[in-house]
Amino acid sequence: GWSKPTRRSLSWLIYINDQDWNTDKHGGCLRCFERQHQPPSHIVGARRDGDLQIGWLRATAQDPIERPVFLDAQRPITSGTNAVLAGGNCAMYMDNDGKGGIQYISKDFNAHPTLFVAGSEVLSQQLLIQGDAEFKARFHLIEPPKSKLTQVFGGSTPDNDEVVLDVEPTGGTLVLFDSVSLPHEVLPTMHRERWATSGWFHEDQQPITAHEHFMGNVV
Asked: What is the pTM of this model?
């Protein structure tokens, strides 16, 4: 569950700079990291039940399709006698190849801040991913945590399965993208200011569980 009833989904922005913007001189592009491989026909970004996509299984020679990985944040917490105590555990899963249902690729785990720091991708691969052995090697987060040094050097570099698309902030340009499944950043400007108006379409969030209300553990 989440602290607000809705979340940001599709992002939009309209640049209102002058038409003479020159990215070589002024910088300021919106940098997007698109997938090299076309995603499968499965839903990406978020499912209808509110589960958000957090990663991918990379394409391989044996399975040449990238598969989105979602987070189920309402897995049951059980006691030693397997009695269900609450619904606050997490697990990662993917769609079951269009056959209906889902396939869990991780063990149940409790959300922890260490999952959101540098190196957490390796931690998830080694400690959480289970089932098919190749899942460990194929799994990666949509957007692994980055160091602040990336800002110093003018932006991030693409992963080996991503391609960079830089959108110039030319006045009158409308940009619309999924802010969950598409990693993105804004590059610094030089010698002039960049102007834009922006907003987000919202989707319903999952409700806060009784366990989270009781524990005060609202994210």
From this structure: 0.71
Q: In angstroms, rounded to a whole number, what is the distance separating the alpha carbons of residues 34 and 37?
A: 9
CA count, 13 A, side-chain hemisphere, 97: 3
What residues contact residue 62 under an 8 Å CB cut-off, 6+ apart?
A: 134
d(CA 178, CA 154): 23
Nearest CA-CA partner of 31 in 145, 175, 148? 175
Amino acid residing at 49:
D
Quick: pLDDT tens for 121-151.
676 777 788 877 788 888 888 876 554 544 4
For 12-62, the pLDDT digits (tens) are: 999 999 888 999 999 999 999 888 776 665 678 777 777 888 888 888 888
Q: Closest Cα partner for 182 from 66, 51, 44, 73?
A: 44
